[in-house]
Amino acid sequence: MGKQDKIFEKGNVSGLPFSFNQEVTEVFEDMIDRSVPGYNTTLRIIQQQAKNHYIDGSNVYDLGCSLGASTSSLLNALNGRPRVIAIDNSDSMVRFCTERFSRSIKAEQVKFLKEDISQSEIVNASVVVINFVLQFLSIKERVGLMQKIYQGLVPGGVLILSEKVHFDSKKRTAEISNIHHFFKATNGYSKLEISSKRDSLEGVLVTETESQHIYRAKELGFKDPTKLMSNLNFLTYKFQK
Ligand code: GEK
C-alpha cells in the first residue's frame, strides 16, 4: 500500500479542480480503496470475467488504468499470454506503471500508453475494461468511446464497465450519497476531507443514471447488459457484442 491520502486534510487549499497529478498518484491506491465501496471486489470480478471471455490472439484493454490495479487482474487472468494494452492520460500514473510493471513490459505481456482514451485505437479486442473512468469524459466523448469500443470488439467480446451513478429520484440520490459519505467517514476521512474532495470533483466527475448507461450501450449495439455488482452508488456492468 502506498502513502495515506491526506490531500484534503486541510480542505481544498489550492482551490483547483481535482486532477490526476503526481500528488494524487502517490496516494491513489489508498484513496480509491477508502473511497469506492467494493473496489477490491471489482478487481476480482475483472479477473474472473477476463478469464471467461478472453479469446486467444485477441487484445485486452484497460482504459484509464491509473496505477494498473485492473491491469494486474487482466495479467493474472491471461496467465502470461501477451497483449494487455493499458492506457491513461496522466503522466505520473503512466510513469508509475512503467516502473511497476517493468518485467511484464519487457516480457511483452503489457504495454502502457499515455493517451487520451477518447483518441485511442481499439482493435481486435475480446475484453475491454473501463473501471470508473467514463465518468471523467464529456457526454459526447462517452458516446464516441463506447462506439469505438463496440467497433473494436470481436464478436462475443465484452466490455466491463464500472461507474459511479446517481438516481432518478433526488431523494434517493441524497440518501445513498449520505451512506457513501458515512462509508468514507468509517474509513477515516473527516467531514472537511469529504466535502472538499466533493467540491473539487464538481464538474470533473459527472455521473449519469444506471438507465442512461444501459440505454446508450444498447443504442450502440451492445447486448445482454448484466449487472455484476452494485454497491451503493457504484455499479459494475458487463456488455456483450
Ligand atoms: C482502476 N481503472 O484502478 N484518457 C485517459 N485516461 C483518463 C481520461 C482520459 N480522457 N480521463 C481520466 N483518465 C482504475 C481506476 S481512476 C478512477 C481509474 C477514479 C484516467 C485518470 O487519469 C485516472 O487515472 C483514471 O482515469 C480514473 O481500476 O479516480 O475514480
Rg over alpha carbons:
17 Å
CATH fold type of the domain at 39-166 and 205-240: Rossmann fold
Oligomer: single chain
Structural class: alpha/beta
- The CATH architecture of the domain at 39-166 and 205-240 would be 3-Layer(aba) Sandwich
Overall pLDDT score:
95
Bound molecules: ligand GEK
Question: What's the helix-strand series?
Answer: HHEHEHHEEHEHHEHEE
How big a fraction of the residues is strand? 15-25%
Description:
- A hairpin with a 2-residue loop joins β7 and β8.
- The chain has helices at 22-35, 39-53, 69-78, 91-100, 102-106, 139-152, 170-186, 191-201, 210-219, and strands spanning 59-63, 84-88, 110-114, 125-131, 153-166, 208-209, 223-231, 234-240.
- Helix content is 44%, strand content 22%.
Layout of helices and strands:
Elements: H1 22-35, H2 39-53, E1 59-63, H3 69-78, E2 84-88, H4 91-100, H5 102-106, E3 110-114, E4 125-131, H6 139-152, E5 153-166, H7 170-186, H8 191-201, E6 208-209, H9 210-219, E7 223-231, E8 234-240
Parallel strand pairs: 1-2, 1-4, 2-3, 4-5, 5-6
Antiparallel strand pairs: 5-8, 7-8
Helix pairs in contact: 2-3
The structure holds ligand GEK.
How would you summarize what this structure contains?
With 241 residues, the chain is α/β, with parallel strands linked by helices. The protein has helices spanning 22-35, 39-53, 69-78, 91-100, 102-106, 139-152, 170-186, 191-201, 210-219; strands at residues 59-63, 84-88, 110-114, 125-131, 153-166, 208-209, 223-231, 234-240.
